[in-house]
Structure formats: C-alpha cells, structure tokens
Amino acid sequence: MRSHIGQPLAREAMAYVLAGGRGSRLKELTDNRAKPAVYFGGKARIIDFALSNAINSGIRRIGVATQYKAHSLIRHMQRAWNFMRPERNESFDILPASQRISELLWYEGTADAVYQNIDIIQAHAPKYMVILAGDHVYKMDYELMLRQHVDSGADVTVGCLVVPRKEASGFGVMAVDGKDRITSFVEKPKNPPGIPGDPDKALASMGIYVFETQFLFDQLRRDAADPASKRDFGGDIIPYLVKHGKAQAHRFTDSCIRAAEEIEEYWRDVGTIDAYFEANLDLTDTVPKLDLYDREWPIWSDAVVSAPAKFVHDEDGRRGSAISSLISNDCIVSGATARRSLLFTGVKMGSYSSVNEGVILPYCNIGRHARLSRVIIDSGVRIPEGLVVGEDPELDAIRFRRTDNGICLITKPMIDRLSN
C-alpha cells in the first residue's frame, strides 16, 4: 500500500497538532481534560491516533498546541511521547497557549495557534507543515498526502472524507471540479454541494492541511493583520486560498491505512457521548472496523508498567470471565462477567458483578452484585455494591447523564451524590 518515489517527504515535514479544544459535547468527560486527552480503545488517548499516524508516516518533528485544561494531556505526552531524539533531528514540542505574542491573548483560533509559534517552528526549519486535528480516530499515511501536495503544485491540500450529502451539514464542505481542485469551502452549510458525478455524496474536511512552510507563514501573517478575521483555518485561511490561490482536495481513501481484514476507511469524530461509546464498542467486534492489532501501523501510547490482567473464581454465578471484550493490564475480574466491554488499565470487578456494553475507564472499582449495561464510567470511579444501571431509564436519567440512545455516563460527583 505504501510506495515512495525518491526521498520520503515526511522527513522534511513537521506535524502540528491542534489539541486545544474542550470538546463540550462530551459533557462531564471533558470537565477536567481536553477532548484529545480523553481515553480511548482500552489503553490509548484520542490524540495518540494523530501522533501515531505522524510517526508511522515518517514525520519526526512534531508540535502540539494545547489550551483548554491541558494538564492531563501534557502529562500524557510527557510520559508517552518523550522518545524523540534531537541528535537524530527529531523533536517533540508541547506548546501551551502562553501569551507569547501578547500578554492579553490566548490562542484566538486554530490559525492563531500556529501563528503564535512561528519562531519555534522556524527553529526546526521544516519544508512542509502538516496541520492536524488532535481529536479524531483514524489511521492515515500523511506521506501520501504530502506527495499529492507536491505533485499537484497546490498552495494548500485539504484532507477530506466522502460522506452522504444529507449528513455533511456538520462539517466544513468542499465543492470541487473534476480534478478535485476546491472551488468553494463552506463551514457547516445547510445545503452542501455534491461531488461531480456523485451528487448524493459530499466532500467533508478532516481538519488536515498541508502547506509549504514559508507560504503558510506568509498566510498566517496576512491573516493576523486582518481585523475581520477569526484566526481560523476552516473559516478564514482555507476560504481565502480557495479564492486567491490553488486549493486541492485529498481524499482519505487514497491514504487510509487498512489492515488485511478492515473493510472500510475508518474515521470517527468521537465528539459526542453516543459517538464515543459506539466507536469504543466497534473494537469489540470479532472483525473490528478499526484494527488496533496491526503491528505494521501501531497506535503508540503510554506503556504503563503494570501487572497482567487476571480472572479469578470458577463456580456457578461467580466466574471471572470476559466475552467479546478488551481487557487491559492490571485488571482483576473477580468472579464477575464483562460482555462486549472495554476495561481500561487497572479496573477491578467484584464478585457477582456484571458489565454489558461498558466503557470502563482506568482504575475504576465495580462493587459486588453491581449490574451495569450501556455505560461509560469515568476514571477512578468506585461503583457501590448492588448498583443497577441500564434497566430503569427514568431512574438512570435522574442519577446520571443519560443520552437519548440510552447510554449512561457515570462520574465521581454523580456517585457521590447518591450517598448524600
């Protein structure tokens, strides 16, 4: 699938990950952490996908712009991504909003988050910039997008998904000509433009952009001098270049990484409780839509030093077991049952308890006789003995965050209120 002509362009590129967003639609999951720092897939964080794609593509210079409640995200990156070596011309810069341009301003928008760090980027002297969103789940070879960018002579190349036109209103949407040159770029249009020859489909932006570095700097400086700009790539920079330059679409199909048994190009914005829940549970399928076991394209994350998972007790009604589930290190399933669930690092399940379709984040403790169905439990929560969730919708909605699809998010403050 991967073919390079000549020297890989990724070695001349810097990946710049925009990871400052709160992700407010994830509700209480982002009360204390930014969306890119939210746990995903049993052991990773959402940001690990963009970072792993960059490393696996051959990019060895990475910057991450953080802003909202960044401590958890920064701590994770310091632990998991500290293996870059300057003597090999590698770098990993964590770039919190630090009021470096003005003492009055944080990052005003996605473009400003790059503009404020131009001097740091210049010190690494990359020829190309790959601008990435830090909050999506997917596998992609950015080398192939870089190659298309250079071959097409574009000023900017925009990564895009083919989506049903009726579902495109939540995205930035591109109209293109027959050669995928972008002719207009509109944020969240009510009537999205179709694709030439395929009018029921639309091209939606992935929030991935490739530029030549010096050209990008020129555009950022021009935009910073415009008092009417909102300092945003999708709202300002890209529409300007569509009108005044050459903007090219790059289809995810052309650079998506799929293991042998993956049947679709998997990309998810896990920005709502329901989407987050479903994307995690996708991983429990016999043949998952997203293969985390692909050793040729690994998803790198924090290698926590911990004991193996353990299952104990083997008697009727009290048997430690897991069916169609992902069980991480340091979990103890003690006479309990997990079905179609993900137990993240350090989860403990007490005897006679059960979880059915659960996303149980690290270091939760599930008390004896608890019965939990279709739940997300935030990290560190202690579920009381005998608690039942997922069987009485009205009671669940009073006690927890319950979505219209019946997913219950449970956090420590919610559990604390039960005992008051």
Explain what the structure shows:
- 22% of the residues lie in helices and 28% in strands.
- The protein has ten helices and 29 strands.
- The protein is globular.
- The mean pLDDT is 93.
The unreliable regions are none
> Major sheet, described briefly?
9 strands, mixed
- The separation of the N and C termini measures 58 Å
Strand content: 25-35%
Q: If you average the pLDDT, what whole number results?
A: 93
Secondary structure class reads alpha/beta
Helix segment count?
10
What share of residues is helical?
10-25%
* Dominant shape: globular
> What is the CA-based Rg, rounded?
23 Å
The number of strands is 29
Q: Could you list some keywords that capture this structure?
A:
420 residues, alpha/beta, 9-stranded mixed beta sheet, 10 helices, 29 strands, 22% helix, Trimer_LpxA-like_sf, carbohydrate metabolism, glucose-1-phosphate adenylyltransferase activity
What is shown here, in short?
The chain is an alpha/beta fold and 420 residues long.
Topology:
Elements: E1 13-18, E2 39-40, E3 44-45, H1 47-57, E4 61-66, H2 71-80, E5 91-96, H3 110-115, H4 118-124, E6 128-133, E7 136-138, H5 142-152, E8 156-164, E9 172-176, E10 182-187, E11 201-212, H6 213-224, H7 233-244, E12 247-251, E13 267-269, H8 273-282, E14 310-312, E15 314-315, E16 318-319, E17 321-323, E18 326-327, E19 332-334, E20 337-339, E21 342-343, E22 348-349, E23 354-360, E24 365-366, E25 371-377, E26 382-383, E27 388-389, H9 393-399, E28 401-402, E29 408-410, H10 412-418
Parallel strand pairs: 1-4, 1-6, 4-5, 8-12, 14-19, 17-20, 18-21, 19-22, 20-23, 21-23, 22-24, 23-25, 24-26, 25-27, 25-29
Antiparallel strand pairs: 2-3, 6-11, 7-13, 8-11, 9-10, 9-11, 15-16, 28-29
